[in-house]
């Protein structure tokens, strides 16, 4: 009777990783089938013959290996039902083990990595995009050698014309696919030669987006708002606080505590990238905060929307923040219409509005600091949406004769 067992072999690949194989043994002779998976030796649990939980993708890989062992066992049993004697090599040749994980299995690894890093909003967004990719393919599996430029081009056309998505949104789908493919290469799951992106292949070009911010007059309408509901007024307060602090994100505004303020400065750590921020508190922001200071202790949140949340549950915090943001945006739109503001408004427009009013008045290095950008190149690209003076002057110099 032949036996099937999963083992970690000792011959390293070029990346210094060890291969996981399926060993078939009969009459004390063994033959090996490579699963296409490679790991560091420290992640292998020799006693339980699986990958330790400390590996970031242990769940997906162990499920994959268990499936392949079950398939091999099934083939061994069927082979041994043959009355003629078969050697271990003959049995091995009748077993086909598909090499490596497919695209969607690696995509599951990517999603799990997002969860592990508490990127719950990104997890939800990218889970939806992967479902749409499956919908386009009409199947739940896709080998990496079948994920080529032709498939990507057809998917791009499908999103643009059948799903009527914007070019920028379509780019986000392609970036996700590229991210999963890069993960597969880094984990030695697929070959770099199959990579369908880059020069002469599928190129991803991020289209220029139009960013429109409010003018000083429009912001003054928000500051002096009258005749709106209390809920709408509170939404405007949160929007203005975001604007006053150079467009800090709504999730960070909602988490502000009284303890974040010391000696006239705001000291907080950004949720998006954990950067520590120190900003002067403008007088206009103080006026708003004073409206919420009643019966608040030092460790209380300034705004009440997240007061009942357990901040140790990052997933629940993300879900609740998304729901609150939708409600705030809805109230802002109603209030803006009543105040005679025709531009579209949302919480994120506060950041654009800061960029619009700052224009070219502030040195780019200082704007980089205020925006909390890691690279000044990002700031230059962002602020280009709001700097028009040089182009306007150049145009006037030609046509005004």
UniProtKB/TrEMBL annotation:
Where would I find the Tyr recombinase domain in this sequence?
209-400
GO molecular function annotation? DNA binding
- Keywords on record: DNA recombination, DNA-binding
GO biological process entries: DNA integration; DNA recombination
**Which InterPro entries does the record match to this protein?**
Arm-DNA-bind_5 (IPR035386), DNA_brk_join_enz (IPR011010), Integrase-like_cat_sf (IPR013762), Integrase_catalytic (IPR002104), Integrase_recombinase_N (IPR010998), SAM-like_dom (IPR025269), Tyrosine_recombinase_XerCD (IPR050090)
Domain of life, per lineage: Bacteria
* Alphabetized PANTHER family for the sequence: INTEGRASE_RECOMBINASE PROTEIN MJ0367-RELATED, PHAGE INTEGRASE-RELATED
State the family it belongs to: Belongs to the 'phage' integrase family.
The protein here is known as: Tyrosine-type recombinase/integrase
Its source organism is Flagellimonas chongwuensis
């Amino acid at each position: 009777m032949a036996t099937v067992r999963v083992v970690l072999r000792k011959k390293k690949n070029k990346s210094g990783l060890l291969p996981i194989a399926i060993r078939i043994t009969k009459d004390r002779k063994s033959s090996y089938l490579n699963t296409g998976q490679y790991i560091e030796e420290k992640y292998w649990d020799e006693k339980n013959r699986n990958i330790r939980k400390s590996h970031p993708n242990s769940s997906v890989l162990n499920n994959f290996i268990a499936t392949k062992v079950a398939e091999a066992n099934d083939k061994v049993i069927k082979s041994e039902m043959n009355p003629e004697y078969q050697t271990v090599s003959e049995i091995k040749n009748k077993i086909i083990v598909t090499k490596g994980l497919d695209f969607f299995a690696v995509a599951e690894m990517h999603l799990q990595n997002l969860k592990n890093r508490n990127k719950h909003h990104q997890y939800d967004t990218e889970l939806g995009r992967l479902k749409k990719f499956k919908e386009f393919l009409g199947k739940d599996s896709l080998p990496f050698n079948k994920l080529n430029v032709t498939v990507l081009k057809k998917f791009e056309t499908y999103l643009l014309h059948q799903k009527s998505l914007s070019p920028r949104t379509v780019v986000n789908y392609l970036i996700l696919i590229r991210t999963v493919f890069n993960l597969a290469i880094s984990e030695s799951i697929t070959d770099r030669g199959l990579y369908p992106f880059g020069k002469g292949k599928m190129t991803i070009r991020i289209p220029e987006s139009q960013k429109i911010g409010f003018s000083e007059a429009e912001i003054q309408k928000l500051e002096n708002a009258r005749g709106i509901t209390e809920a709408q007024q509170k939404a405007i307060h949160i929007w203005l606080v975001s604007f006053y602090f150079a467009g800090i994100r709504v999730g960070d505004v909602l988490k502000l505590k009284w303890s974040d303020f010391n000696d006239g400065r705001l000291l907080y750590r950004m949720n998006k990238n954990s950067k520590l921020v120190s900003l002067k508190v403008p007088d206009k922001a103080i006026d708003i905060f004073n409206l919420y200071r009643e019966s608040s202790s030092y460790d209380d949140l300034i705004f009440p929307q997240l007061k009942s949340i357990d901040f140790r549950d990052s997933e629940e915090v993300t879900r609740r923040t998304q729901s609150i943001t939708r409600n705030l945006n809805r109230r802002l739109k109603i209030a803006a219409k009543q105040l005679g503001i025709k531009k579209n408004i949302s919480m994120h427009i506060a950041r654009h509005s800061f960029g619009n009013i700052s224009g070219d008045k502030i040195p780019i290095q200082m704007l980089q600091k205020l925006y909390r950008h890691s690279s000044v190149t990002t700031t230059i690209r962002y602020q280009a949406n709001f700097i028009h003076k040089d182009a306007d002057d150049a145009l006037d110099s030609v046509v005004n004769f």
